[in-house]
Write a structure and sequence with these properties.
The protein has 1 helix and 14 strands, in the order αββββββββββββββ. The protein has 189 residues and is mostly beta strands. The strands form 2 sheets. Strands 1, 2, 3, 4, 5, 8, 9, 10, 11, 12, 13 and 14 form a 12-stranded antiparallel beta sheet that branches. Strands 6-7 form a two-stranded antiparallel sheet. Strand 12 and strand 13 form a beta hairpin. The longest helix has 12 residues.
Length: 189
């Protein structure tokens, strides 16, 4: 990513809009692993246009291993996440910490859960994330756990409906351009 593109990306992230309406987007380019180089701490909701929902910690629980869900976007504390750059890791590697629980967003097997934020190596944890851009101008990103980087095909977070109509978060194999794999970051406050 050249300096001009990096500056444009950082400017776009700085101007995040609350519950922005996602637009049509190009698939991320992962052949060269051109992940975003975002490197600042910021707080945002995580919105799925595919399910019209925000990632949510049910009731703001502090129970480790609680599955995260998608809920109607309300701006509640349990839907706010702070993206914290991870020291000693590649630029654009984040712990994604929920404001209500203080716990990290983490992949576990095929689901997305809370974790204690104590793991420090990308190979041993699914709690560190890179945000490959899908459409950076529209603040749309995929969420890739760092222990999946380099896997082909690799897994990313997605949001889908289960058989009873609830939004569930999973970690299927990535399919370029799939709306369920795309999340919009929107600042709060």
């Amino acid at each position: 990513m050249n300096q001009r593109s990096l500056t444009a990306t950082l400017t776009a992230v700085g101007a995040l809009l609350l519950f922005a309406t996602p637009s049509a987007s190009a698939a991320p380019s992962h052949g060269a692993r051109a992940d975003t180089a975002l490197a600042t701490t910021f707080t945002s909701t995580i919105y799925s246009a595919a399910t019209h929902s925000c990632v949510d910690v049910p009731g703001g629980t502090t129970n480790i291993n609680t599955n995260l869900v998608g809920s109607t976007c309300s701006g509640a504390t349990e839907q706010q996440f702070t993206f914290q750059p991870v020291a000693g890791q590649a630029s654009g590697t984040y712990n994604v910490v929920n404001a209500a629980s203080g716990l990290c967003l983490a992949q576990f097997r095929f689901g997305i859960r809370q974790s204690d934020c104590l793991h420090t190596t990308p190979e041993s944890t699914g709690q560190m994330w890179t945000l490959p851009p899908v459409n950076a101008a529209a603040n749309q990103y995929a969420f890739e756990p760092t222990n999946q980087v380099g896997d082909t095909p690799y897994r990313v977070m997605d949001a889908t409906f289960n058989s009873v109509g609830q939004v569930v978060l999973g970690k299927p194999f990535y399919v370029a351009g799939t709306a369920t794999d795309t999340f919009t970051l929107a600042s709060i406050g």
